[in-house]
Amino acid sequence: MSSADNCVFCRIAAGQIPAQKLYEDDLVLAFHDIRPAAPVHFLLVPKRHVDSLASCTAADTPLLGHMLALAARLAADQGCANGFKTVINTGADGGQEVYHLHMHVLGGPRPWQGAI
Ligand code: 5GP
Ligand code: ZN
Q1: 32 is known as an active-site residue
Q2: How far is CA 63 from CA 17, 49, 74, in A?
Q3: Is the N or C terminus of the chain more exposed, i.e. has fewer CB atoms within 10 Å?
């Protein structure tokens, strides 16, 4: 069994678990976080399983650049006119809970209730 078999974000990408999707293309999927920590809080994930930022190499540069550029575009689409925050929690000390690479995108009027 591979690490992707029981991965919640792989299952969302495969349509096996429902999610409120905002965007998808061949490489990535964006969906609202199930426990939003800000008025706007969505996640950007690669469709293929990648454990975390720590397992990325130079070969993943196009994917990571695509995720960053999309974060800005989708935050604007979500009405984040005054800015937004991007967060990638990595590993145990980075507070990563789901081991499928994901970028949090948070925005909306402050103060926000939660911490990421
Ligand atoms: P991490 O701490 O790994 O950076 O954050 C994982 C995030 O995934 C959390 O903010 C959590 O609310 C979100 N999350 C976990 N399971 C699900 C799920 O099944 N659906 C959605 N939409 N978000 C999830
Ligand atoms: Zn996965």
Answers
A1: no
A2: 23, 12, 16
A3: N
